[in-house]
Fold:
Amino acid sequence: MASKMNTLEDLFMDLLKDLYSAEKQLVKALPKMAKAAQASDLRQAFQEHLAQTEGQVERLDQIFTDLEGSPRGKKCVAMEGLIEEGNEIMQANAEPDVMDAGLIAAAQKVEHYEIASYGTARTWAQQLGHDRAARLLQETLDEEGEANKKLTQIAESHVNMEAQ
Structure:
């Protein structure tokens, strides 16, 4: 059953639940992506982002505690679809370098989704006067941006050339 949306606060809490679900799904998906990656720097980037993602879940838990809300009750269908795209790449009979290029593309779609969502959540938190939540969301937003830059760097430094 859909929750009632009367205020920006309602929308904000709904977005936080969506992000919580997204991050929990990502915690399960990243080890598979790391295992499927051939390039050691790509594998390491996925492993590092897994550790970051676990920290991002903890930040969301902290926000829910502060705001006396629950992270439960919503499934992020966008993340489910993005992870499914990654699974399709991993199941394809692809050359290892081509697989890495595809994994980077899938991971960057995830990062861009998260950057858009965390940016919105941070802005709403600021507007609603949830200063600590806004700071925590900004920390995660910064990490997502860095992860995206690192993926671009790996792609442009060697993976895309090797996949050609």
Remarks:
- Helices lie at 8-36, 40-66, 77-91, 96-127, 131-163.
- The chain has one domain: 8-163.
